[in-house]
Amino acid sequence: MFGMTNVPFGVWIDESGTIVRPAEVGFAPRPEPVAGSGAPRPAAANVDPRSAELIKTITSTTGDRTRYMTAVRDWVANGGRSSYVLAPDEVVRRSRPQPPEAALAAAEFELGQHLHRAGHPLDAVPHFKRAHELDPENWSYPRQALSLVDPEVGQNYGYDVLDEVARIGPTTFYPPLEM
Amino acid sequence: MLLESLDLTPEELRRSTGWEIKPEGACKDDRCVPLPGVETRADGTIDVRAFADRMGMPVAGDETHGLWALGPQAGASVLQSAQVSEIVLPDFAGNAFDVASLRGRKVLLLAWASW
């Protein structure tokens, strides 16, 4: 939807129903866990060194995680006068390209989701795989597919997401903000 | 959008895709796309593959389950306009929520996950 390729992604829609910022990475600052509070440690601290390095690379493109929230607050306060608001032509220009492969990937993924929900998880797998092959930089496909894995069935999608991120390009995971 | 048949009447096609078949072509909002070679057959149906081909919409199929999915129109970008199209999503209670009901207010549509 709107060209979102991962989470968190945000879209701004003004009072008239006009998109004033297209889909883009929308992180909010994550509070540091208080020592001794029992709060979970960040995921990167619990993985092997190779994966930790990859996660570090992936998240390096997100930069200062207060930026998006600062921009949202500015828009709320200043509306159309906010410097973060984009003209309609610029919104369209910045939205994600949709070549035939990406359009077909969306159709394949919809089939996969339907089959999974209809109780045919194994029949959904080829469609999930095909969606990822066709549109490899849309990380919402493999992430959503993996979230649907039923441990009882034990199917896999033939790849590990972190391996795929390394193969396709870590900076595609969270495209840098243009703001 | 999911389809159980690739032979649809114009009305079924309109309900499924929002595109209405008119003499000038397939029309939605203020746009019409000419459809040379795509005609309503004697039995009142339209060949969805021919329609999709003309519209630049891919078709994915699952023969085992007799299901097809019509993808979005391929093009230069996901957004063809900055105006929001109709978005209706299920809320936590499973009820349909129309984003248009928020007109008059700013909307931050945030896709998020808990993992």
Question: What keyword list fits this structure?
Answer:
heterodimer; A: mainly alpha; 2 strands; 44% helix; 7% strand; B: 115 residues; alpha+beta; three-stranded antiparallel β-sheet; 2 helices; 11 strands; 30% strand
Topology at a glance:
The complex is a heterodimer of chains A (179) and B (115).
Chain A: E1 9-13, E2 19-25, H1 49-60, H2 67-78, H3 88-94, H4 100-117, H5 121-134, H6 140-147, H7 161-168
Antiparallel strand pairs in A: 1-2
Chain B: E1 2-3, E2 7-8, H1 10-17, E3 20-22, E4 25-28, E5 31-33, E6 46-47, H2 48-55, E7 59-62, E8 67-70, E9 88-90, E10 96-98, E11 107-111
In short:
The complex is a heterodimer of chains A (179) and B (115). Helices cover 44% and strands 7% of the residues of chain A. Chain A has 179 residues and is mainly alpha-helical.
Structure explained in plain terms:
Chain A is mainly α. Chain A has 2 domains: 9-30 and 41-94, no CATH class; 100-169. Helix content of chain A is 44%, strand content 7%. The longest helix of chain A is centred in the middle third of the chain and has 18 residues, at 100-117. The radius of gyration of chain A is 18 Å and the shape is globular. With 115 residues, chain B is of the alpha+beta class. Chain B has a domain at 2-70. In chain B, 14% of the residues lie in helices and 30% in strands. Chain B is built from 2 helices and 11 strands, in the order ββαββββαβββββ. The longest helix of chain B has 8 residues, at 10-17. The radius of gyration of chain B is 17 Å and the shape is globular. At the A-B interface, strand 1, strand 2, helix 2, helix 3 and helix 4 of A face strand 7, strand 8 and strand 11 of B. Strand 1 of chain A pairs antiparallel with strand 11 of chain B, so a sheet runs across the interface.
